[in-house]
Design a protein that fits this description.
Helix content is 27%, strand content 18%. The chain is built from nine helices and eleven strands. The longest helix is centred in the first third of the chain and has 28 residues. The radius of gyration is 31 Å and the shape is extended.
Length: 347
């Protein structure tokens, strides 16, 4: 029996506006003038933003003091892990030639410390840091459990390598009086980290919430005793711990440590004069040829003293203008030339 054409299913698409491509469309046909105008306008914007950002960064004040070699005796002591319980302090005097006005921030800066290694980044437990299960240490190797099998809290390589130097800033009020500069350790974290990504276990007593766990091997205290002066700054909500857990992308980085409390002699900022950093040296860096610094800096609307963003805008603007001038030269050269149908264009 022969099949009629009506019996065969058709492979043609349905006669609709979508399947037959009958929808209205718009195709831009930019002229050479329009393209060149866009390139020049983009170049002007980038160059202008670059200059503004560079001037803004230059208006901030920053001082950096590297204390790796100044505290060489303490650094040598920390090279031996057996001396973990021995205290070592050093003092670094310095002079401020001009007043650092406004809000002043203290950072610690590390050189040669790679927080971007794949295994290091994965060595953490997000469920533990959210307070849902403090004994969840499956993803924390090699710092998941102690030698006796007790789960570590907080676990992982990131938490175990927490920066633990204590830095105190002192101001020489006169020839015989030294006062400690009031610094705040709160308000140094990202809002999303403090109130979204980190949570303490739900318990009235924090020490009982961490029962059945132990501290990381490199920590002198358990996580619920990180701040003896402020009970709310303990556990996974400790500001220094949260700042450290946000890993850096490059081996040289700085992290916010303290911010100036603008009271008494420091209402307007840090006055010019003689100061000193008193450092309790605990974090070893010489074993991997690293270095440590303390940074004091003021901020502007665009950030700190770094020129990277301003230079990036400036270079982008200059490259855009260079491309615009090149295209304009080609356009003017070929503007009056006419192509006949017999001309061959090589693609």
């Amino acid at each position: 029996m022969k099949r009629t054409p009506q019996d065969c299913p058709s492979r043609l698409p349905e006669n609709t506006a979508v399947k037959q491509q009958q929808l209205p469309a718009c195709r831009l046909q930019l002229s050479a003038t329009g393209i060149l105008s866009g390139f020049f306008a983009t170049g002007v914007f980038c160059l202008g933003m670059g200059v503004i950002l560079i001037l803004s960064a230059k208006s901030s004040t920053e001082i950096e003091i590297n204390y790796t070699k100044i505290c060489a005796s303490c650094a040598k002591l920390r090279e031996n892990a057996r001396n973990f319980d021995k205290e070592c302090t050093c003092s670094i005097p310095f002079h401020l030639t001009q007043t650092m006005r406004g809000n002043v921030y203290m950072y610690y800066k590390l050189y040669g410390f790679y927080q971007n290694l794949h295994g290091y980044l994965l060595s953490r437990s997000n469920s533990q840091l959210l307070g849902t299960d403090v004994k969840d240490v499956e993803t924390c190797a090699p710092f998941s459990k102690s030698h006796d099998g007790t789960p570590i809290a907080p676990c992982g390589a990131i938490a175990n390598s927490l920066f633990n130097d204590t830095i105190i800033l002192s101001y020489k009020l006169n020839s015989s009086v030294h006062i400690q500069v009031p610094m705040l350790r709160s308000g140094i974290t990202w809002w999303t980290d403090k109130y979204v990504k980190f949570r303490n276990p739900s318990s009235s007593n924090l020490s009982s919430a961490f029962a059945g766990t132990t501290k990381p091997p490199s920590w002198p205290k358990p996580v619920y005793e990180l701040d003896e002066n402020d009970p709310g700054n303990n556990g996974f909500l400790n500001d220094d711990f949260i700042v450290w857990m946000r890993t850096a992308a490059f081996p040289t980085f700085k992290k916010l440590y303290r911010r100036l409390s603008r009271t008494q002699h420091f209402i307007e900022g840090l006055p010019a004069g003689n100061y000193s950093f008193n450092v309790s040296y605990n974090f070893p860096v010489t074993r991997f040829q690293g270095e440590k610094s303390v940074v004091l800096s003021t901020l502007t609307w665009s950030g700190g003293h770094s020129l990277f963003l301003g230079l990036a805008y400036t270079v982008t603007g200059a490259m855009t203008w260079l491309a615009a001038f090149s295209m304009m030269a080609v356009h003017l050269k070929l503007k009056g030339k006419r192509f006949s149908p017999d001309d061959k264009v090589k693609l």
